[in-house]
Amino acid sequence: MSDAFRPRSRTPSPHLGGEAEPPSDLAAWEPPAQGGTPTPPTDSPLPMYLLAQQARRAEGDEQKRLAWNLNQLLAEMGAQGGGRPEADAFHRLLEGGNLDGLVDADGRSCRATAVEALLALGFPYALEVRPEDLEHLRNAPIPGIRMTPPAGGPFPALAVGLGALALQVVLGWLG
Predict the structure, then answer these.
(1) Is 94 domain-assigned?
(2) Residue 48 and residue 77 in contact, taking contact as beta carbons nearer than 8 Å
(3) Reduced to 3 states, what is the DSSP secondary structure of residue 103?
(4) Which domain holds residue 95?
(5) Is residue 15 scored above 70 in pLDDT?
(6) 87: which residues sit within 8 A by CB, 6+ positions away?
(7) Would you say residue 96 lies in a domain?
(8) pTM above 0.70?
(9) Is 171 domain-assigned?
(10) What are the tens digits of pLDDT across the range 70-116?
(11) Does some domain include residue 87?
């Protein structure tokens, strides 16, 4: 019977020196990786999620105060810029409905602030904003700005503008 068909022993055969040679085709043993979850870095979006959850659970003035803090954090993250992790964090907040109904004491919606921050990240993340979020931003009131037309409609403003133009023309002829 040839060696090719002879069953092999599971124990390594000793060589001339009497010691078994370790197989060379096996990888070196490494201890298993440590389990558990690592502490998130300080620049992670985790504080944003926690603040949103706290604001949703709070009521009255406390909710408005937490919403104001959240708006400040969202605006700061948008101003600092970022990449995919930040954009994904904003998307998770918006798509999860975590910001719905959260309005700070100034009347600013947390959802609108998050959309603005996502748009501030620029290309390509600004292209990923959902149409309903853009609609919310467009319809959201801007604190400190009066959104109603002036009394009397546009005609008083038009009259003042045309009067100033006529004055410029007359002064141009005289001067």
Answers:
(1) yes
(2) yes
(3) strand
(4) 46-139
(5) no
(6) 118, 121, 125, 128
(7) yes
(8) no
(9) no
(10) 999 999 988 888 889 989 989 999 988 889 889 999 899 999 999 99
(11) yes
